[in-house]
Specification:
47% of the residues lie in helices and 13% in strands. It has 306 residues and is an alpha+beta fold.
Length: 306
Amino acid sequence: MEKNHTVAITAGKNNLNEHRQIHRQIHIGEKPYSCDSCRKSFTSKSSLNRHRQIHAGDKPYSCDLCGKSFTENSSISKHRQIHTGEKPYSCDQCGKSFTWKNNLKRHQRIHTGEKPHSCDYCGKGFSSKRSLNRHRQIHTGEKPYNCDLCGKSFIWKNNLKEHRRIHTGEKPYSCDHCGKSFTWRSYLNQHRRSHTGEKPYSCDLCGKTFRSLNEHRRLHTEQPYSCDYCRKSYTTKKSLNKHRQIHTGEIPYSCDLCGKSFIWKNSLTEHRQIHTGEKPYSCDHCGKSFTWRNYLNRHRRIHTGE
């Protein structure tokens, strides 16, 4: 009995020494255990063994709610919170809650301004390692996400997802004022300002305000697109193409109700409102509605005295 007790004490001391050794390696940065598949290094042998399961495809731990499998048991506990809606980690600054502790830690950097991850090319700081890795691709020129329909490549996955909508015709962003749909959220935000009359962007050269400033700035700096009929120049290719229709006599947009044709799609859209009786432009002072925006703008002057 005494011998067994001595063995147990010796085993306990060995385990304690092993944990001390592993802990010391955290401070000195030593990672003596290397994966023979990808050469990634680890502080402890148990961490290496867990990592090896990634290469082996071994996922012995399954979620009893959806059947998804995981390499580690601890991953299941985190995953289950998606099903339960549990968010045990709360920000003490704004009260926002998170499922995982790491997400809370990243979020808190918004409040502290901490950016611990720096780009070794330009020195720019980032709050998360993921943001840094995405930024690095700007310097390396790496574009790992390819469109399987046209072959165009993108730095970020989100950009590829948005690009695919050009091929699919998907328009997931709808205006809550008039129901018009858009491919990209930025286009929806810009469109909404046509209803509100908001013009948040001011030109620092002429002081004029706009819903979107990019195209206007080119008026002051450049007009790279020239008409080969009259040499008139435009800031965008779209504007040039619309202008060319004046020379060619092309009137591609026809009303399916009365047959009237228009050079521009916007003109057809506004014309259709005569038939439908739609009045999407409302005065925020008195609520009166108008078929066309320019009628609303003229009406507003009654209230402003402009």
